Fold this sequence. Notes:
Layout: H1 8-13, H2 28-32, H3 46-73, H4 82-115, H5 120-150, H6 155-194, H7 196-199
Helix pairs in contact: 3-4, 3-6, 4-5, 5-6
Amino acid sequence: MTIETPDRDEIEALALASRNGWPEEMRHLIARYPREGWDSHANLGSMARFWLSRHAMFRELAGMLTTITGDFREGRLAPSDFPKLFVPRLQFTLQQLDLHHYIEDHHHFPIFRAADKRLARGFDVLENDHEAIHADMECTADAANMLLRAIGGDADALRLAGDRYAEAGGALLAGLMRHLDDEEDLIVPLILDRGEDALGIGHGE
Length: 205
């Protein structure tokens, strides 16, 4: 008996920074339940709708943060106004991501992994995504604090701090958008196929 290890190219292809959707062998439910039919499907229950609304919130916050930082760096937003708009939204995003991922890792993913063994590898990938996103969250928080400290100081230092935040924050948001799309593509078709009550995630449980 031998122990098989994942191919390095396969691991890299499914890494958050380089992934472009799921491989064909994990798309059996995605093909059966395309996105355009999700909202009208009878099995899209209250849990799934709430979960998707949280994803929509993260996308909206990402857009806000991108606009706010872009306006500040281009001079359309005054330095005195930037922290008031930027800090609460970034802080809320980071806090809510931490909670959202904790619930998924400790409650939802074990249920979904057990429901369809063919998708188990996908949930391992999504858990690895969470680790990568949390590392990016730490880098983004550090860069944001450096940017806030640079306001009102040397112009070159402010520009460098802005560049650093743009890189860190851009990496966080790009990875998050990829993750949200892929997570939905794996989980929503599974819910539509089985139903929330059968999976044990319905509100009646």
